[in-house]
Design a protein that fits this description.
By secondary structure, the chain is of the alpha+beta class. The chain has helices at 32-47, 62-70, 99-107, and strands at 4-9, 17-25, 52-57, 74-85, 88-98. The chain has one domain (4-107): Aminopeptidase.
């Protein structure tokens, strides 16, 4: 049985930008999400010519932010009211990783 899944949008897009749309794990807080995301990052940059990989999260989701930073994502800013969840508009923290950053992490 899988530990979870990652949904990507824009795989091999002409804009060379891929979005991590969703990450879901069976048991949060045990490193499964981080491992799934690390595998997705590797796959995107190895199998496509993507230049930018981005992800959004609620600013108060500190556990997710730590996991995303651990695999190389950098916070870029807050998109105000851009997430519509349970009938409410919420702010979204935008994080991204660029190909040169991934290459540097991978080589060193």
């Amino acid at each position: 049985m899988p530990n979870g899944f990652v949904i990507l949008r824009g795989w091999a897009s002409a804009e060379r930008v891929t979005l991590v749309k969703r990450i879901a794990v069976v048991a949060p807080g045990q490193g499964q999400g981080r491992a799934l995301l690390a595998a997705a990052v590797e796959r995107v940059f190895v199998e496509t010519d993507a230049y930018r990989l981005c992800i959004g999260l609620f600013p108060d989701n500190h556990r997710a932010r730590r996991a995303y930073e651990a695999v190389g994502f950098t916070a870029e800013g807050v998109a105000r009211g851009s997430a519509f969840f349970n009938g409410v508009h919420r702010d979204e923290l935008v994080m991204a990783q660029l190909r040169p950053e991934w290459e540097k992490r991978r080589s060193g």
